Amino acid sequence: MSTKKNIEDRPVRPEGLRSELLKLYFMVFAVLAIFAGITYTITHEVPEGHFEKLDGTLIKLEDFDPVQLGPYPKCHSHYGEHQSANGTWVKNKEVEKEETDDDFEYPVAHPENSAWLEKKLARANESKMSFRSIQPSLHLLLISVLVVFLGCRHSVWLYVKPDVERDGEDDTELDESIGQSAIKDQEAYLFPIFGSCVLFGLFVIYKYLDSDRIKFLFSCYVIIMCANGFGINMGQFIALCFNSRSLGRFKTLFTIPYFRVKVTYIDIIAYIIAAGLGYQYILTKNWIINNIMGVSFCLLGLKHIGISSYKTGVIMLCGLFVYDIFWVFGSKSVFGSNVMVTVAVGVEAPIKLMFPRSQDGCGKLMFSMLGLGDIVVPGIFLGLLAKWDVSRPDAKTSPSGVYLNWTMVTYALSLVTTVLIMLIFNAAQPALLYIVPYTIVGSLAVALSKKQFSDLLAFEVQDTMEEDAEELIVEEKKEK
Predict the structure, then answer these.
(1) Domain limits, the chain
(2) Which residues does residue 90 pair with via DSSP β-bridges, in sequence order?
(3) Over the range 347-379, which residues count as b (16 or more CB within 10 Å of their CB) and which as e?
(4) Would you say 456 and 310 are in contact if contact means Cβ atoms under 8 Å apart?
């Protein structure tokens, strides 16, 4: 079946979808801007050579007391070290506890020192309900829920066909800019394996090789991918403003050979801005640019990567459920370190969203983080439900978006649960541990309550990218 024929068989674009998407884009922009503003109002500089205590008082770095204040901060000359009994300075990472040594005690200034851990836990409990502690959680909840909902609804915009009588002709051409892939069962089984290989490879690079060149090259690769996502998203946003799926109404300046991607002046402007953001991120590692590029990457994935069926989505989520639990909770006992946290903290690239939670004694921001996978993976599953919402037999008579809306509620509740558990136990949590059961049970409950479970299982989405590639090969053969 050709792509054009496949598009003609699809449902008609829901009324009001364009205005809804524009509002969602505005809300995402507003949330990013508001929390950036809040962060800059609560931050301040700490004079060089000084350390700011929790009560706001300043002390000189040479007066820093590790007994009272814990490990030496990053701005201290002995950061990452402690003083041994004989007066020499030793790297903290060189101190290891033997499994059979029950009486072992980490030294003062080591982050695992028991006295320091007790003080740290007490301070965390005292500040749990302060605005400073709640702010990153609000930021996390709002931006992740908005991005998932926006990505799912925009994927519907690319999926459906326009109502010619109501919306007019859609001048888009079926090219690379609007193609949507559809993951099949076999690919869903391999997701956790492929993800584990990539994650462990990054762990080895950042934990053992410690090669700045390799780290820089990987960061540049991720930044290029995110910049590409920003460029495509900006072009699709402009197209949305003109009630279209791509930039077909704008004059083509040239066509990229082989891929046959038509480039307009909108594309050039978008990629110039994207390149500027990428360059600034390399120079500054600014968290706002990180989040802009991370959100762009998430939206690109949600709009163009999908699953072929509900069954495939459940397989994918269950596999990644086990993957996330092992690499967060089980990896330390096997590899000696929490692999997921090591990679998330070590990789200086937009592979996670960063939510400022406080400022350390040196004046640097400290962050809570959410991996992009915790947005994209459940978002892909919800994207199928969004397409099913406009395709189901009772779509015209039943409330629009009932499957997506209710499952979005369970997704939001799963994030609330993640945050609460994280605050209670003061430790990193695998978000998919809570996201997967919430979203599967939520979607299943809607299908059973509407008596449409068998219809949902039978619903399939075609891979238009694969079909476009086949058509391209056929056209090239004809030309030859």
Answers:
(1) 3-25+136-479, 50-126
(2) 82
(3) bbbbbbbbbbbbbebbbeeebbbbbbbbbbbbb
(4) yes
HEC sequence for 213-224: HHHHHHHHHHHH
Tokens of 60: 């000189």
Residue tagged 């800059």 (tokens):
40
> What is residue 330's DSSP assignment?
I
Q: Please check whether residue 349 is in contact with residue 222, taking contact to mean a CB–CB distance below 8 angstroms.
A: yes
Q: Which of 221, 154, 80, 188 is nearest to 404 (CA)?
A: 154
- What's the CA gap between 266 and 233, in Å, rounded? 11
Return d(Cα 274, Cα 230) in angstroms, integer: 6
Query: How far is the CA of 72 from the CAs of 65, 66, 67, 78, 302, in angstroms?
Result: 8, 6, 10, 6, 42
- Write out the DSSP string of 144-199: HHHHHHHHHHHHHHHHSB--HHHH-------STTT--EEE-HHHHHHHHHHHHHHH
Any idea which residue has 């056209």 for tokens?
475
Spatial contact of 369 and 355, defined as CB atoms under 8 Å apart: yes
Say whether pLDDT at 5 is over 80: no
pLDDT at position 386 is 93
What single letter denotes the amino acid at residue 250? F
- Among residues 12, 24, 23, 19, the alpha carbon closest in space to that of 302 is found at 24
CB 175 within 8 A of CB 4: no
Residues 326-357 pLDDT 10s: 888 888 777 777 788 888 777 788 888 988 88
pTM: 0.86
Assess whether pLDDT exceeds 50 at residue 3: no
Long-range contacts of 284-292 (CB under 8 A, 24+ apart): 285/348, 287/354, 287/356, 287/365, 287/367, 288/32, 288/36, 290/350, 290/353, 290/354, 291/32, 291/143, 291/350, 291/353, 291/354, 292/32, 292/230
| Pair type for strands 89-91 and 81-83 | antiparallel
56: left (phi over 0), alpha (psi -120 to 50) or beta: left
**φ, ψ of residue 211 in degrees (nearest 5):** -95, 115
Q: Euclidean distance between the first and final Cα of the chain, in Å?
A: 23
Q: Convert 236-255 to b/e letters by CB count within 10 Å (16 or more is b).
A: bbbbbeeebbbbbebeeeee
